[in-house]
Write a structure and sequence with these properties.
Number of strands: 9
Shape: elongated
Structural class: alpha+beta
Radius of gyration: 21 Å
Helix content: 10-25%
Strand content: 25-35%
Number of helices: 3
């Protein structure tokens, strides 16, 4: 079976993954090219799509697929198609469960530098990038200005 046919079949299997993955013993991620036991999957997106335990992307295929054989070449071709091709439907790999960003900023209530929690990057009205979060001690809102945005 040609790789083009396998790719089309793999695309079809991404729409109904959970039943196939639950029957699988071994799963494969075509984003990071990782291989792992089905029991390693801890998170699901929309209750249908398995999240890779290594890279946090929903690009998991189970070995219970009977329509095609999962080979290293197929995984490499899928990775190129979905994540490395400029015309790809997924231009960027978005990690669905990123590690928490820790940063220190000055807390006006504590009057000391504190670690921020629940951080997110924001753009202020003047165009500067900043990290917005909460003080890990008292919960007051905090900002740390990062600098001008690239124009």
């Amino acid at each position: 079976m040609s790789h083009e046919i396998c790719i089309k079949l793999a695309d079809l299997h991404t729409a109904c993954k959970r039943p196939i993955i639950e029957r699988s013993k071994r799963c494969y991620c075509y984003c990071c090219l990782g291989s792992f036991e089905r029991g390693s999957i801890k998170k699901w997106l929309s209750d249908d799509y398995a999240i890779c335990p290594y890279c946090g992307v929903d690009s998991v295929i189970g070995d219970a697929t009977t329509a095609f054989q999962i080979t290293p070449m197929l995984m490499y071709v899928l990775k190129q198609r979905w994540f490395e091709n400029e015309a790809s439907p997924r231009l960027k790999v978005i990690n669905l469960y990123p590690k928490e960003v820790t940063m220190e900023a000055y807390c006006v209530r504590c009057k000391a530098k504190r670690e921020m929690k629940d951080t997110e990057e924001v753009t202020m009205k003047n165009g500067c990038k900043a990290m917005k979060g909460k003080c890990s001690v008292c919960g007051t809102g905090m900002y740390k200005i990062l600098g001008k945005a690239a124009t």
